[in-house]
Each structure stands twice: as structure tokens, then as C-alpha cells.
Amino acid sequence: MSVHRRRSLFIAVAGLVLAWMIALGGYIVFKNSKLTAEKVAAYLRSVDLSQLSGEARAKALRDLARKMNALSVEERRRARFEGDWDRWFAAMMEEEKSAFIEATLPSGFKQMLQSFEQMPEETRARAIDRAMKELAKAREEAEKEKGVAVQSPAQRSGELSPELQQKVVTIGLKSFYGESSAQTKAELAPLLEEMQRLMESGMLFRGRR
């Protein structure tokens, strides 16, 4: 093999190796920068909101809202199960809860409430029942993966008592949501997001499994 051909081959191989290294580096950077439910849960554990005040406190809440909004629908649902939300919401003032909820409303949320309002009561009841079952199933799977004991329904946010279910069915989700306190809205967030997820996927009104 001539010196010229050997040199050309070396340059070609070096170019391939460089391209592979650039691609691998880009993948690693993307993987590390992509927000996941685990990263949100780690952030919740690492920050003690009750110890913050002023701008530091406001920044912590903004950062959490930004992280939640950056998650995919599935990762957002997982983050609801894995994060230390009780501690954070217990430390929030009412106006902070309201602001956080408004800041993290998923796209199309208000349209979902409006669509639910227009449904017959029987359809509303089926929709809530389906969403609660899907949410409970997903939560149990997440808890089993983590090796955490499954809590009773009464201890879980996002699950409505029979009395509240009937109220939602009767007056409509939009009206119920509008009348609720910031704390109730926070507790309902997983269920409402699940209803929206199922509605957008077309699964909300499919036959029960």
C-alpha cells in the first residue's frame, strides 16, 4: 500500500472515530440534561423549602415548576408518585400553592375541564372511575418497583371519596375545581392530569379492562 493511500485511510478512520466520539458526547450530554421523574424527586429531597425565605424560596418554587413543566406526560405522572410532595406542600403558604398549581397546569388543562363539563352525568362518572383506576394501578406499580408498601386509598392524593365523586359528577369538574381550596387542587392534580392524559390518548372512554 502506497504512502498516499495509507494516509488517506488513516484520515478516513480518524474522521469516523471523531464523528463517533462527537455523537457519543452529544448523547451523554442530552441524557444528563434531560429531566426525568427521578431528577425531580431528587430535587424535592435535596431542598428543604421550610428553611428558605425571600428570593431563595421563590427561586426554589420557580425551579420546581420549571422542572415539572419540562417533563413528558408519563414522567410527570411518575414524578407525582416518587417525589416528597407532602413535605413541600406542607411548607407552602396558600398563595404559593395557588401560584405553583397555576404555573404547572399542563397544556390543554382548561379545555379538558370544559369538555368534562359538557358530558352527561353518566359519562362523567365513567370517566372519573376509569381515571382513578388507571392512576391507582400506575401508583401501585411505581410503589412496588421502589419496594414501598402500598398505601390505603384514604391516604392517597388524587383519589376521591364516593361523596366527592358524586359531587364532581353532579356539578361538573370545572365548577368543583373552581370552588376548591389550593390544598384540594394540589391533592387533585394527579387525578386531573391522569384524566387529561387518558382523554388526549382516546383511552378515557374505551371499554374497561
Task: Summarize this structure briefly.
The protein is mostly helical and 209 residues long.
List the helices and strands and how they pair.
Elements: H1 3-33, H2 37-46, H3 54-70, H4 73-82, H5 85-91, H6 94-103, H7 109-117, H8 121-146, H9 162-171, H10 173-179, H11 182-201
Helix pairs in contact: 2-4, 6-11, 8-9, 8-11, 9-10
What portion of residues belong to β-strands? Answer: under 5%
How many helices?
11
Main sheet, how many strands, which sense, barrel?
A: none
Proportion of helical residues: over 70%
Global morphology: extended
Q: What Rg, in angstroms, do the CA atoms define?
A: 23 Å
Mean pLDDT across all amino acids: 78
Structural class: mainly alpha
Instruction: Tell me the distance between the termini.
Output: 68 Å
Outline the low-pLDDT stretches.
25-32
